[in-house]
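Researcher: Batch entry, complex prediction.
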Amino acid sequence: MNTDQPLDLTYDRSLIRPRLPRFPMVLRHFSRSRTAMIGLFLLTFWLIMALVGGLLAPYGMNQMEAGAVWKAPSAQHVMGTDQLGRDIFSRVMIGARQMVVLPALSVTFALLLGVSIGLTAGYVGGWLDEVIMRVMDVLMAFPIVMLYLIIIVAIGASAVNVVLALGIGAAPAIARLTRGLVLDLRNREFIAAARMRGESRLYILSREIFPNITAPILVDALVRIGYACFSMGALGFLGLGVPPPSPDWGRMVSEARTALIIMPTAPLFPALAIASLVVSFNLVADGMTEAMKVD
Amino acid sequence: MVRFLLKRGLTLFISMFVLSVLIFILSAVMPIDPALTVLGRESTPETRAALTEQLGLNRPLPERYLDWVGNFLRGNWGESYRLGVAILPLVQRRLLNSVVLAVLALTIIVPVSLTLGVIAGLKEGQPVDRSISVGSLVSISIPDFVIGLILIVIFSWWLRLLPGDSSLRGDDLDLLRDWRKLVLPAFTAAFVLIGYVARVTRVSMISVMGSAYIRTAILKGLPYRWVVLRHALRNALIAPIAVITTQVAWLVGGLIVIERLFNYPGIGSLFADAALRNDLPMIQASAMIAITLVVASQALADVLYAVLNPRIQMS
Amino acid sequence: MKNIFKRLAQEVKARDEKVLAAHSQYAKGSMSRRQFLRYSAALGGGALAFGMLNPLDRALTLALRAQEEMAPVRGGNLSVGAFVNTSRFDDPARLDSVFASNVVRQICDYMVVLDADLVLRPSLAESWTPSEDGLDWTFTLRQGVTFNHGKAFNADDVVFTFERLIDPDTGSAFSGAASYVTGVEKIDDQTVRFHTNRVAADFPYTLFLYVAAVLPADWPGDFLANPWGTGPFILEEHVADERVAFRRREDYWQMGADGEPLPYLETLEFLTYQDDLARLSAIQEGTLQISNAPAELRPQIEAIPGIVYTPVQTANHDIAVMKYNEEPWTDDRVREAFKLCFDRQAYIDTRFLGLGIPAADHPIAEGMYPLAPTDQQPRQQDYEQARTLLTEAGYENGFDLTLLYIDPQSDGGYTEPFAVFMAAQLEPAGIRVTLQPDPDYWGKWLADWGPFHLGASNWGQKNTASELFNLAYRTGAIWNESHWSNEEFDSLLTALDQELDPETRAQQLAQMCDILASEGPMMIPCFRQDAAALSSRLHFRLHPQSFTWYGDAWLEV
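Model: Structure tokens for the complex:
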């Protein structure tokens, strides 16, 4: 993530603010990468589904057909039916919204938490930094599902609480990244210059440092949204995700796991949906990183 | 070096303390009546109150915390509310199972992911690299429970090669006898990490190969293979090894989903059951185990880092 | 004791009717022929049921019965896949589930036994008689029985066991269910007398409550360390959450068909499976010879060779509970509307793949309880009527509520589909439901916690209707989820408990069921069939109450 490293040394760039990656340039490189474009295509697809998936669904998410349990894909039910005779295709389509929105919200929450912790630790430094970062390190390595379990059991399973739990789970890594970027900038001349001008700490943090770390943090956030989808799936799998009947893809895979033996397509479609959504976030983030590096 | 390790040790200790307080507070504010868990709903309010008193649960929090930490350190972990059996031997048994599974997963992850990452890094931009990169990206995008399901349906239901049920029937783990039960869960756990570690390795390899001293070495006419093996590898492996060590705690304590799926008696599912069934002492004990694991693996990472790369930390 | 004969006659009738019910399912195609035949053979179906079979099925039934009557083979090791050993076993008096009691059941005996055919039979007690005034019950005990730690069984052990059970400090469910028992007295070594403060016609049944396993008088506590009992098996190993293992006892008092002491099996083990997929794998791999099997696993299990999916009709039921004393349920019309929303047959067909019978919103299943009413009339789904009633009650736009149900992790995901199905069924009537799973359902619900006005849980079959009513429907009863309180119901229940004449009792029971069905605070959609995946080599009768006793189970070689 060395996007602010000077590439040409014709003038001393350390006296001025480092240049932000130029957007058109990044875009051009991004659009040249085939994998990145595939990712963008998939991501756009799911974003559209999140908006209009509910309208495309031929059935309601909790609409049941009596006795039509685990029916194989057919003309009426292109992905078959689930254990309560509900249309799997409709549930996947309707489920796209929460699968995109909730992880995005949780990462937003994680960004708020993580960036403020990282900025503080990185800028203040010293023992406080050392201890905060050690705690963050431990939390980062702490088995994440265990953390979710503790949080969800303490506050209960609901859409809001899933967002909170996922956010708390993702914050330490963001804090770590932010701090690293801040440390990198802290001793630069332009910060020292601002300090000499007598600017307040808050000003320096918010106006000088923050704008220079947003690009890598946002790219990282894309990856984190992918992970959050993953974790939401795992929570749904454990029955701790967003409560039914909302079509949680992870829960759908989980509920279909015994049907796997008689109808392998039952868990396949929601599983593919999760995988393609996460892969799209990862491909796009990857493409962005590469593109910014070139710039 | 010694000073660095001492300083690291001290901060580790402090973070452990902070986290143990966090865990304790979290578990203490959970909406749970321990007396109810122990005595059941048929018990009278009087007997429940008596038990709460006897367990010392109405004392102030700091006192309970000190008591708990003291007992924990002395190996006096008490009794599970849910199961009515001593926690320590149960946790030991489950932890051992989990460690064996984690080690097995690591023996798959380390060689495979490092090899893939190094090859991709050396052949940057070539078809080999592209297929490894995309492959690893896809592999990190598939949830572990999906991998597990796919492996189960293929290997135990279609091919009938390996058991999809990894329960140990209460026996102690005996690798010679039980290895077949460990294959599928170990591969499931490994699959998730292989892509991740391979990607880190690849990036690290690329940046090392692009560094001035490697370029100089190659320009000096040293054999390419020799430069890679002798100089580049050692530096390129620092980052992936650091990443692997941060995943050790997850491999040991975090495989809740995989343990559930295969009915494997590890520490993760023990913890999940404790959390879901209001078993306070078990929740606290398992969480402390996890923290200890994390801190230990990070201490290991620090030492490895210092050994592999003394030049950075001596300053 | 004339009553006993009368009751027996009724039991035979009930059994025939069960076979009839099963046959109607078989005729509808929701039950396979082999299953039906096996089921009716297992029930020992009466002449009536047998007569209505076609000749081919008759021959098959006879063959299956002959198989049931094959001479048992001794030896063999049985592995049971269960959800059992996730509880505490330190005190049998405080067991908290039927599944947990199945562990103790292999080691200990009860005074009496309610067999799989729902007839109460002697066990450690050989016979019993009430006093003239009906307040004392004298039990004659079996002689020549020894505990597995060597002590001979006598009246002291019974006195010890039941004095503990009725002591409120023990915290046993017994003291609540049989609160009228005031004491137990040793008359001589083979005789004990129970004293009660009111006539309780069903008292002998309460001795089969699963907490009432008989322990020796010198039992020092901690059942895992001192697993002492008179039962057919000895506890060999207990690994929490994983395995409970038993070994056969050489000197058990009950004799097998070959004149030698039971059990036939050499060893027995319960293995814990929380995940259905792992359980299926274990069945397929031959690790398990028997495992309970929820309805949704039926197609998967029937696809495994050598395994028979074996259902048994029960009175077990799902139940939607309305908080009786809270809005909007205080209005009779709202409760009625609620009950009219649910399509019972659709639920049975979807959730239990056809294995169940519709219920009429009261818990007393026909044929599954002594004297149960026979003219059950389940409500038909009628949204129009429901909406009319809601409008009359002032809810023309419907209303929103939160449905609290048992968290899938706590009950293996059993309740959740019911809750989801219910939400879908209520929606067209304008009742909008938010689902809220909770790991502490009983704690929250019973403690009157939070803004939840609808609950979903499930109840198992009890020994008698009175037992269930006194646990869950009497005003102020400990498990009264709905806070239901009805004077007429309570007085009928009191009268039922004191009445000895079966005719009158049947009338009282029918009246109570009518009250519950018409104005009760619960919606009970159906009585499900429970099922197990059984190895075709295993000879074992399923009990409708999920009790499993492997004393007379055996495996073909």
